[in-house]
């Protein structure tokens, strides 16, 4: 698929709609939205960003299609065990006490020594967690019994037993060594691990789903489980730390058989459940601002982003050539240049206008956004008018979506430059004295202060500076032992290794990665023992492998983003520590490499076979698969997980580069502007917003010619990205903070601050000796036992002769 040619089939329809005689610019129809950059050539993607996809989709991605035969194997293991104790009834016909008794029997079976028997019992428990699907007639019924069975299993203590078994399997050196020696690892090498991880994932994923019909007991169970999952109860560390350990062990090559997709999915869902998603993050932010007596947030960012409209995609080279040829043939050129929003507000929506009068006067040098060709030069046949009910018209809000923000540092810089310009002196950090400054400067300062925004991070940095300056009089720091703090303490000793491991797997799963001999094999839990022999089997495996990689990218991007956001709220230096190690591990070029592909092809990829997805495949009769049905894929306009991954990676890139000039320069050095501009082809408002943010921070370094030839992109940045009132991002003025020789010093200073923070708060063994209490009592000092080395004891007489007897002592001076 050509990058510039996406949505070609939709262009004719949009052009035809634009030619309707009784349709004016003022009339906007849903899903046929228009920005101030001309008509859209492809429809907006109806994508709603959330913490996760639909529950059924999150269940289905756990299983590879090559695991399909194991559903019946799980059922067989359950029924063999079940029929020994209950011969005449189905599972769904028993009462609660019988259900509980059988769950307890299965739990006891997990403690047997024989591995084969233990695996059969684990498969029976997995069948319960999968909703005892053989006795269900619909997907809804399967999901109902899943919830019931999983809460039952949790109640009898299954999860703790599973964690112990998982620990045992992770430490199984025999399995690791045999996997290392194998030339090709397949699904069979990770059977035990996969069964355990499947049960644990289904339990975490199901319990975190809140339902209004849940009983009070279930709600209490959910909260207890959430607390336990985030606490160091399992093996004296949170479950997430154990899973991180599995990731690093896999990447080091010591355990190549680990089913990495399942580990990463369980890690993501554990972090999401224990720390909270994006709605909870917003609530924590509001609560923390109240506790610090800061003004409330100017707006709800989630709501603002959801209400945004997507901009038109960039034009391809062929479109630009065609556009220039058509412009050359024009006899008349419109003299009016009117914003579409103004047209909507001022013109009569029911008036039939001449299309010539409404045409945008597009910039000749612009190659950024699609433009509408001259109406009279279209050769398409005009369709009959399509009546639209008045209720379908969309009202566009006036004004910009975001309230502007100003930092204290910006006000200080503005005042300093004003004072040195008008008076010739400076006052340091004084932002109140305006004596001798002209009245317009007074008004500017008043406006800046009106929009001043103090972040939680600024308060945390100021408090940390105070602790460092006054370690004795500063008092004890009150650290809230929340789930985020417990997780940070757990991963702190090995955090750099964890970040490198996640990025290694992300690189291996990226669609732009070439197969290299030294890259890690992430397909251990998708490749069957016997490779496919027919074309159909090969196609099915190809879809499975691509889907497998997409799910891994989705899980890693969500893990990194959640951790960055939660650490930033908990303490900014925790966030900076993780972010700096991501930068050191080449996260910025890795994400840019990920986007250096045909991003529209990635987002519209159809790497799924819906009839093989769980729970559909266990309830319905499976139709015969053909090569045509596999090629056709599903009917969705886009792939939810791929668009979700792209937005997450863009948000991570924003987090890493915001207010960091050295990292912004990395974006410039790696030539990210054309890569990011291609990503604007995706007509989804949230994704475009984060692309435009990344373009905005580097605009001043891209040169005047780039800005001149990308004016529509500049306009989109102005419309959609938050304004900083005295930020000269669009003009390329020299920034005092952006001197290249300061870049290394900036990172080094940040690293020193992070190390001081971690040492002060978490390193109890390396306290500063200057601040330790001194023992002034002569008896206790002389009474302390001092361990002397052996060679000293052997040569004690010699030491006495040399250091004591042979040296003259002036007793008078000593006694005085």
What is the averaged pLDDT score?
82
Radius of gyration: 32 Å
Largest sheet: 2 strands, antiparallel
Query: What strand line-up does the widest sheet have?
Result: 1-2
Give the overall silhouette.
globular
* Broad structural category: mainly alpha
Question: What proportion strand?
Answer: under 5%
Termini separation: 96 Å
Percentage of helical residues? 55-70%
How would you concisely characterize the structure shown here?
The protein is mostly helical and 816 residues long.
Structure description:
The structure is a single chain. With 816 residues, the chain is mainly alpha-helical. Helices cover 56% and strands 0% of the residues. The chain has 39 helices and two strands. It has a two-stranded antiparallel ribbon. Helix 9 (191-207) packs parallel to helix 12 (260-275). It starts with 7 loop residues before the first helix and ends with a helix.
